[in-house]
Structure formats: C-alpha cells, structure tokens
Amino acid sequence: MAQQKMLKFVTLGKETPEKRPANLRAHDFHEIYREFADAKAAEQASRCSQCGVPYCQSHCPLHNNIPDWLRMTAEGRLQEAYELSQSTNTFPEICGRICPQDRLCEGNCVIEQSGHGTVTIGAIEKYITDTAWEEGWVKPVRPMAERAESVGIIGAGPGGLAAADALRRAGVQVTVYDRHDRAGGLLTYGIPGFKLEKPVVMQRIDQLEQGGVGFVLNCDVGTDISFDAIRGQHDAVLIATGVYRARDLMAPGSGAGGIVPALDYLTASNRLSFGDEVPAYEDGTLNAAGKRVVVIGGGDTAMDCVRTAIRQGATSVKCLYRRDRANMPGSQREVQNAEEEGVDFVWLAAPKGFTGSTAVEGVIVQRMRLGAPDASGRQSPEVIEGADYVEPAELVVMALGFEPEDLPARWDAADLGVTRWGTIKADFRSHATNLPGVYAAGDIVRGASLVVWAIRDGREAAGAILDYLAQPARVAAE
To answer: Which residue numbers delimit the FAD/NAD(P)-binding domain (predicted)?
Structure first.
C-alpha cells in the first residue's frame, strides 16, 4: 500500500516553493522562498521513484537516507521523517536552505536524468525540519550516561558544532572556543539572511547549549588562551577553525579606500541584522547605499555580496568573472536569483587594476576569452589584448576565495603539521593530525568548501575521537 503513494513523477510535475517577487525581496534580508504547505510537500515527495540505487543519496556528502524520508513525508509520517533525517545530518534545516542541491542530490536524481524534473529534495528537507521545530520534536541532547573525558573544539562553525553534537550524544564533556561573540561561524556571520535567517542558526546553538555543550566566546586562540593550554585542559582537541584569510589581488591601486574583503562586508551586514552597532557600516566603508558596486569573483560568496549590495540600496551592482556563465563555480540558482534582483553579470572579465588615488573610482577591466583546458579540465581564461576599459565604482568587494591562516605561527605550535597550501595535514579517514590527541576537520583541512562537507568531517572526526578516548593504552596511562 505504501508504494502506491510514490512514483507519481509520471503524472505530477516538479514544483518548487514559491519565491517572493524580486521587487519586494530586494529590499529586505528575509528568506526568499516560501514554505511548502503540508499537502504540497507530500505531493512533491510522492514524485520520488524509490530507485534501487539512489544517486541522490550517494551524491550527498552525508549520504542522507533521502528516499526513505521522502516516502515518510508522502505518507504523512513527518516525525519519523525528521528523526531519520536528523540521524545522518546534524543541521538538516540549514542544509535544506543553503546546500547547492542542483550540484548534489537533486542534480543526480534519476527522474531528473530521465527528463521529468528532479524531486525538490532541499525544499522538502527544510519543510520536514521546520515542522519538527514548530511541533517540538527537536529536543536537547540527553546522553544515556555522562563520561568524564572532555574534548576542546576550536571553532564554532558547522564542522565544530557537528562534532560537538555527536560527542555530547556519547556523553563526552565538550567545550567550544571561538573568536567571535556568537557561535555559528560562517552560518552566523558569512551567509546572508535572505538565504539563512539567523534565528534558524541560533535555535540550533541554543539546543546544543541546553544539551550541555559549553561555549567560550570572544576567545582568540593564541592571544586570549594558548593552544597548549587548551590541549592541557582536555583529553582531545578538534581544530575546526575554517579558512578566513581573504585572497589578495596584487594589482595597481588595490590599496585604495573602498576596496574591501567579502567577509568583512558580509559580516557587517549580518551584524546589523542582530541589532549590533557597526561603525564601518555607519561611516559608509561597508555600506553600498547610493554607490556603484563591483564585486569580483564567481563563487557563492560573490553571489552573497552582490545580492547584499542590492538590498543596501546600491545605485548599480556588477559582478566580474573571468570565465563564462557555464564555467562559474557558484550556484546557477543563485545567479538566477541575483539577475532577477537587478545584478548585472559581466562575463569573461577580470580586474587589471584600480583607478582613484585615495578612494577607488573604477576598476580597470581586462576582456578575456577561454583558451585550452587546464589540468582540471576547465578552459583557461586568456587576456584579449587592447580590449581594456574602466568600470566606474565607489565600492569594490573582493570575493576571490579564502586561504588558511598560519596557525602554527599564530598558536606558537611549530610542530603542528601543515600542507604546502597551509591547511592542516590530517588523516583523511580519522582526521587525526601529527600531534597525539589532536584532530582537524572542515575547511581548515580540505580548503574552502561546502557547509555539508564540514558537517560530514565534524561527525567523522567525533567518531574517531571517541575511538581515541577508548584506547586501552591511553586509559592505562591516565
């Protein structure tokens, strides 16, 4: 009988949650997608083909059991669907909002490949978990038994929080250290509210606190507390700092005022949403209002910046990317949303320098063309000589990606092993570093990546730490 509720993709078309009109949503930072209604979520879930080899599941970094919770949703078994979703994903309501499903689960859906339109997996995942919060099904962690061992986690982003959740469920005492005044990392300060409203993040952090996770905020390791001190206070340590150092563009005029890093710009905007005082916004440094804005970059961070500038009241917003639309790394869905809101994309364009002495007045743009493929298989951009022009701008946002900070130097930990890229060297299965009892997970190991990968790494690292804590040799030594 249950199977009759499924396989509806032949008769039911794909529908996504309604988007708020661009002319309305471009003036605020609320999420742009409306919720599915109960009946619509069940209807769209029933389109799943329940295929024997679920590519949606295998292409999800967390290997979420997507076909089963789609079936449960179609059958109205929402609490069971939530519990199954939560069993593999620490933050399903966050992944449902910000994962690039078009590149992961939905992009590999079997019925999408057959031309029927993918199951709207992300929207249903969001609906299931939002319903769970509304119904009170989400409870604080209550371990079966408390353990004496403690773990210190450096970094309160998605990787660190996912590990904290898993360790607390096993009864381990967990303390999370973070340099910011709120936990969440990029979930809190990097991703704009129109993609991820901040109460969604804060309720998860509250849940972790209520479950016994301790947070030490405004704590910059290496300045406020030493790395050695954290190691001394805990039986194991997980490094989950992420990568925050902006890539620089060494070009003439790059030191002029009005050229700002993407993360500084996004953090200022997100702090405003909390009601914080942000002097750099008030004085105009990180405020796009009334300015011609140019954002340089083609990833998801660049999309966040252009759409933030629109909402701040920029006169115009242009995004420069050195390749074409088909080769950009950011989500095509985000590009479409940005275009609807008034962003102008300038493809095959790269910055050569900047005009203006004390304050930026324009970007010197080089026209590009795509040449032979590079080692990754992508066509390499080549400069078209003599085609330079100046794009006027009073605010330039650099969204060229992120690199790791020099943690061995910052933390006075010269023996901490790093790669030639500056990321921490850790075993790809156990996430163990070269230091006994020290593990690393997320972007600080793999480089700037997706939130869902950080969650996976954090959960895996927590499992490895539990194995380490249980080692007889370590217990005997104590």
So the answer is: 151-458
- Print burial letters for 286-311: b (CB count within 10 Å at least 16), e (below 16): bbbeebbbbbbbbbbbbbbbbbbbbb
Give 38-76 pLDDT, tens digit per residue.
778 888 888 888 888 899 999 999 999 999 999 999 999
157 near 240, Cβ under 8 Å?
yes
User: Which overall architecture, per CATH, does domain 247-401 show?
Assistant: 3-Layer(bba) Sandwich (3.50)
Report yes or no on whether pTM surpasses 0.70.
yes
Q: For 126-162, how does the pLDDT look when each residue is reduced to its tens digit (9 = 90+)?
A: 999 999 999 999 999 999 999 999 999 999 999 999 9
CATH of 150-243+404-477, one of 3.40.50.1110, 3.30.420.10, 3.20.10.10, 3.50.50.60: 3.50.50.60
Distances (CA, A) of 141 to 133, 169, 387: 14, 6, 60
DSSP string, 115-136: TS----HHHHHHHHHHHHHHHT
pLDDT digits over 406-460, tens only?
999 999 999 999 999 999 999 999 999 999 999 999 999 999 999 999 999 999 9
Query: What residues contact residue 198 under an 8 Å CB cut-off, 6+ apart?
Result: 188, 270, 273, 274
